Write the structure tokens for this entry.
Amino acid sequence: MKITNKDEFYFKPIKPKLSDIELVSLLILAEFKSIDSEHQLFRELKDTALENKIERSVYNRRKRKLFPYLEEIRLKMTERFNEFENYFVVDSMPLEVCKLSRSSRSKICKEQDHARPNKGYCALQNLHFYGYKLHAVCSIEGVFSKF
């Protein structure tokens, strides 16, 4: 399945050693290998051809800029994986931003009104929390389609 014809997604005045599409491939590989720490990822890149192609700080900056494109790719992949699925599971969980006692002082995610965290209650865990309620839709095979 071909997702794009482009190697670069946004303009960079200096051509990087690692193209955007290669970086996206690296991010997908890290996700596939369940590597959620960039420190671990760069440990695994040691002594490979990719070791000197990108620094950690540049990796993080470019990863943030590529988020909209990564999301588009994730949606296309999910659509393909779940093409023949008839049944899905919906679940939710509290996503705590900070402890409830710090909620009045916290400045996390308060820049935009529509994205502000709120106080909530999870009956299953008998827990009051400050943050978000994360809802996820997953296929029976374990592929997340929406969250």
Q: What stands out?
A: The helical segments are 20-32, 38-45, 56-65, 67-81.
